[in-house]
Amino acid sequence: MARVICVGLGPGDPGLMSVEAWRTLSRTRHVAYFCKRGTRGNARRIVEGLLAEGAAEYPMKYPVTTEIPLSDPEYSRLLAQFYDDWSDRLATLAETEDVAVLCEGDPFLYGSFMHLHSRLNGRAEVEVIPGISGMSGCWTATGTPITWGDDVLTVLPATLTEDELTRRARDTDALVVMKIGRNLAKLKRALAAAGKLDAAWLIVRGTMPEQQIHRLAEVSEAPYFSTAVIHGQGRRP
Question: pTM, whole model, 2 decimals?
Answer without folding.
Answer: 0.91
